[in-house]
Specification:
By secondary structure, the chain is mainly β. The chain has two domains: 110 residues, Ferric Hydroxamate Uptake Protein, Chain A, domain 1; 688 residues, Maltoporin, Chain A. The strands form 13 sheets. The protein has a 22-stranded antiparallel β-barrel. Strands 23-27-26-30-31-38-39 form a seven-stranded mixed sheet, with no helix packed on it. Strands 3-2-5-6-8 form a five-stranded mixed sheet, with no helix packed on it. A hairpin with a 4-residue loop joins strand 26 and strand 27.
Length: 959
């Protein structure tokens, strides 16, 4: 078989008061202009909440035209609506905060409900009964509205209390790791993985189905599959971090991990925070070295130093009219990589630095119109970044990453009437992401990899720059009306985006060298320098209705239209420095559309208020989601993308360095790779997932709620690759190599491999297409949760998930479904990041004298392994074959226990000083979290272990 593109891997870590008619007309015209602008987006989601309910008298009769007014410190101007003919009301677009609701009607006492807490996407339902009496008489009640009985979507909300109280790595990945059911590729101990983003999944979603929503607007990195981030956040600048996991409404396009990060704002009172956290190797235990073949081996990335300092403040320029907020963070980490040593025997280091700036300004233009603008800047510097394709990477073979990125955002919200609200958002992401050679790499240094030993030496596999931009726009309208024996909350939206991604490559000598267990294997020659560019556009529109019948049953029904179009614009690359005879064409016209998809997907759910008191709900739903996509399809067929040719190499002179006459001869040619030998099926369809959920949630005591939910998911029309130049009929079975029987080295059982017929060796015509075999997949899961927000000195977030995802294995766009060697042990695999049992617990309690203790505990069944072996001696040189189905072996179970002890001292009523001590991995569990899965001398050798116990010291001043 012709080799596929060499495995070069890196990942991104990306109001209700009636107004004059003229003002309303200007707002409508503004909205229409914004909608018609050729700007951008996919993925607008709520960063506000709602208060809804019904107003009746003591007999249960509806009271129309009652005045409902909402006040709160998060509002610059109070919001007022009138009840409908059936007594229902809705106050939409309420910022995160705590509110007081006042209801007045002639002939009745005034009703006041206090302490109504609103989170992003939460609908608080009130049942208001007015008593006959004078309007001056006031009846006051305290809210205990914690169950959302109107929506069927499932989300986990990290409010300010959880974010600031629970010990974690203070980054998005260690926060998502606390979400019930979520699994990640990396396990963080006190920030040990905060500089390398994890791939995430939940409840059967495909890994990488991730949306990074900044203030309700998706601003992902456009490269690869489209599911990664280009921007590392300032953790302390967040007011709320919400993760939508299941049954998302029609305004959300993707059904996986939807992270909605809401920035703090100013207010009428000056407020802020100054904090610092520090740890060093002196506060850390030594790693208990794992045993491999009876000998202790080095693994893990313990801390040398961590220093995290932050400051932010917000307040009014003009009370109730103009608020500002600003934040700055400086974050430094140094770690030792124990598995790799320098020639002098010392461990290599991983040195990282991050800084952030956040500026926000909010304006109340009129009582009904609010605007905010934001600028977020991130400098992400990694001085020894390593590829994930190899387990053991030398310092000199690592990359140097000095990366600036920024986001500019704006949002306008306008109430055209008390029941009709428009919301428009605009965002721009700009990134320069480099993976540069180390300064010590000379032009004569080349990359040398060993596929079996999983080592990389000499130099990184390429010198790279990724310029990327995303421009996004979204507008939505919300309209509330009481009709048809109930109330309707209609929502309409339109979204559009332009996304550009560049891939600029340079490679020393235009070659990479590969060994197999110390034996010369092949040489890849490349078409560098490369200056490739790809683009995709997305458009979406949705409509949904939340229809509440008889105040008990709410039917949420919606439909979403998604359009995706990707192509390669006109582009050129400089002349190659070597092997130019193989890559003569350097300029390319704009390509036809690589993919042009139009999909309608339904969303249907119900929420039944079981008892009618807003304390319990049955939720059920069927929802279809398209899978997220980036520039990878266009890049796969871009003739200007990184590509080349592979040659067999035997190192005739034995010097370990490939001379041209040792490999560049016709009989050594193995095949080509890159966009020049790849095409996309013109009938390619967009993958999607179908999800079913049924659950029950109950408020059991004050604001403590518990629930149980069943999840089912299947993924359809998944995309992979076939080599159409070598069909399954072009392979012949063989049970011997070199005259010896072929045995599975893991089981000792006979094994049949498949030889490419000689006339087809080296032929390549890769077709990216939908693979029907991959429709064989199913996820089933049951989850039990308990949630309580901070009150009466304690808070809780807990979940137990029991799950199984099983089906046909694939290796994405590096697979070949025409190769029967790849089909060996392909069926009935445990898929992706499957952990049979997942348990999460966050809890904190505040004791007398300002002492607070907090715990963050996580348990995961060990992830599945897939042992492979490289068989040599076939006509196609070699084949990598799975020795058993994925999941028959697993990594050890992972248990992480983190504890915080802190004491808050009040200097004044507004100013507090808190001293913090965090204990991470309290049991010092150094369990193995990754192993070499390639059969050979290093098979099952530990690659990484859970970082050891470490204490982090901190101090925080709030005002």
């Amino acid at each position: 078989m012709a080799p596929s593109m060499p495995r070069i891997v890196f990942d991104r870590r990306h109001r209700a008061i009636p107004r004059p008619k003229g003002t309303a007309r200007r707002s409508v015209l503004l909205s229409l202009l914004l909608v018609c602008s050729p700007l951008s987006v996919l993925g607008q989601v709520a960063i506000t909440g709602k208060i809804t309910g019904v107003v009746t008298d003591s007999s249960g009769a509806a009271i129309p035209q009652a005045t409902v007014t909402v006040h709160g410190p998060a509002l610059m101007a109070a919001r007022t609506v009138m009840t409908q003919a059936d007594g229902t009301f809705l106050v939409d677009q309420l910022p995160i905060g705590t509110y007081e609701v006042t209801v007045k009607a002639p002939g009745f006492k005034t009703y006041v409900q206090r302490g109504v807490v609103i989170n992003a996407g939460f609908t608080a339902t009130l049942t208001v009964t007015l008593e006959v009496g004078a309007l001056q008489e006031v009846v006051t009640v305290m809210a205990e509205t914690v169950v959302d009985v109107k929506t069927h979507s499932l989300k986990t909300t990290f409010d300010h209390d959880l974010l600031q109280t629970i010990p974690s790595g203070r980054d998005p990945w260690s926060t998502v790791a606390q979400v019930p059911g979520a699994t990640l590729t990396r396990f963080d101990i006190g920030g040990s993985e905060s500089y390398q983003q994890s791939t995430m999944q939940v409840h059967g979603s495909k890994p990488g189905q991730q949306v990074w929503s900044f203030n309700g607007l998706r601003l992902n990195w456009p490269g690869s599959s489209g599911g990664f981030t280009a921007f590392y956040i300032d953790y302390d600048s967040l007011q709320e971090f919400q993760v939508v996991t299941d049954a998302a409404p029609a305004e959300v396009g993707v059904g996986g991990i939807y992270m909605n990060m809401v920035t703090k704002s100013g207010s009428n009172e000056v407020h802020g925070l100054v904090a610092g956290y520090y740890l060093s190797s002196a506060l850390q235990k030594s790693i208990k070295r794992p045993i491999f073949q009876g000998v202790p081996v080095s693994a893990g990335i313990p801390f040398m130093m961590l220093r995290d300092t932050t400051a932010n403040a917000g307040g009014p320029i003009l009370k109730d009219r103009w608020w500002i907020f600003g934040a700055y963070r400086r974050y430094d980490i140094s770690q030792r990589v124990l598995a790799v040593r320098r020639p002098d025997g010392t461990n290599i280091s991983d040195v990282n630095h991050q800084s952030n700036t956040v500026l926000r300004s909010d304006f109340q233009l009129t009582p009904n119109h609010r605007v905010n603008v934001q600028w977020l800047y991130n400098s992400q510097n990694r001085f020894f970044r390593r590829t994930t394709a190899f387990a053991f990477v030398d310092d000199q073979a690592s990359w140097r990453q000095i990366e600036p990125a920024y986001i500019v955002q704006g949002q306008w919200t306008g109430a055209l009437t008390s029941n009709f609200i428009l919301d428009a958002r605009l965002g721009y992401l700009h990134l320069l992401f480099p993976l540069s050679y180390q300064p010590t790499v000379k032009p004569t240094d080349i990359s040398v990899a060993d596929l079996t030993l999983s080592t990389l030496k000499g130099a990184a596999q390429f010198n790279f720059l990724n310029p990327a931009q995303t421009l996004r726009f979204a507008v939505s309208a919300s309209y509330f009306k009481g009709a048809l024996r109930g109330s309707h909350n209609f929502k309409f939206g339109y979204e559009v985006s332009t996304n550009r991604n560049g891939n600029f490559y340079d490679i020393n000598g235009n070659i990479n060298v590969f060994f197999n267990n110390g034996v010369p294997l092949r040489v890849d020659i490349f078409n560098t320098p490369i200056r490739a560019k790809s683009i995709f556009h997305e458009t979406a529109a949705f409509v949904q209705d939340s229809w509440t019948l008889r105040q008990r049953l709410t039917v949420n029904v919606g439909v979403r239209f998604d359009h995706f179009r990707t192509f390669n614009p006109e582009q050129c690359s400089p002349e190659p420095l070597a092997f130019r005879e193989f890559f003569p064409t350097r300029c390319f016209p704009q390509s036809p559309d690589v993919a042009n998809w139009n999909d309608f997907v339904p969303r249907l759910g119900i929420a039944l208020d079981v008892t009618g008191d807003g304390r319990s709900v049955i939720r059920a739903g069927f929802n279809r989601f398209v899978l997220i996509e980036g520039t990878r399809l266009a890049e796969a067929v871009n003739p200007n993308i990184l590509g080349g040719r592979s040659y067999r190499w035997t190192d005739a002179n034995g010097d370990g360095f490939p001379q041209v006459n040792e490999f560049l001869v016709p009989e050594n040619f193995l095949g080509s790779f890159g966009g020049i030998v790849t095409r996309v099926d013109p009938h390619l369809k967009r993958p999607y997932s179908d999800q079913v959920n049924v659950g029950y949630e109950r408020q059991v005591y004050k604001d403590l709620r518990v629930g149980a939910t069943y999840f089912y998911r299947t993924n359809r029309r998944l995309i992979s690759r076939r080599n159409m130049a070598i069909l399954p009929t072009d392979y012949t079975p063989t049970t011997t190599l070199g005259g010896q029987p072929i045995l599975n080295p893991l089981t000792g059982q006979p094994l049949t491999l498949f030889n490419v017929i000689p006339s087809k060796v080296g032929k390549v015509d890769f077709l990216i297409t939908n693979i029907p075999d991959l429709d064989d997949n199913a996820y089933h899961g049951v989850e039990i949760t308990a949630v309580k927000r901070m009150s009466q000195n304690w808070q809780l977030l807990a979940g137990l998930t029991i799950q199984r995802g099983k089906g046909t294995f694939d290796a994405g766009l590096s697979d070949d479904f025409n190769n029967p060697n790849r089909d060996i042990n392909r069926r009935a695999n445990i898929l992706d990041l499957d952990a049979t049992y997942v348990f999460k617990l966050d809890a904190s309690y505040t004791w007398p004298y300002g002492i607070t203790t907090s715990v963050n505990y996580q348990h995961y069944t060990g992830y599945p392994l897939r042992p492979t072996n490289v068989f040599r001696g076939l006509n196609q040189l070699s084949e990598t074959v799975a020795l058993e189905p994925r999941g028959r072996r697993r990594l050890p179970d992972v248990d992480i226990l983190n504890l915080r002890v802190s004491r808050l001292t009040r200097i004044t009523e507004q100013v507090g000083v808190e001293v913090i001590v965090d204990f991470f991995n309290l049991t010092n569990n150094n369990v193995v979290t990754d192993m070499v899965q390639a059969f050979g001398p290093n098979f099952l050798r530990p690659v990484n272990v859970l970082n050891p116990f470490v204490a982090r010291l901190g101090a925080r001043v709030t005002f």
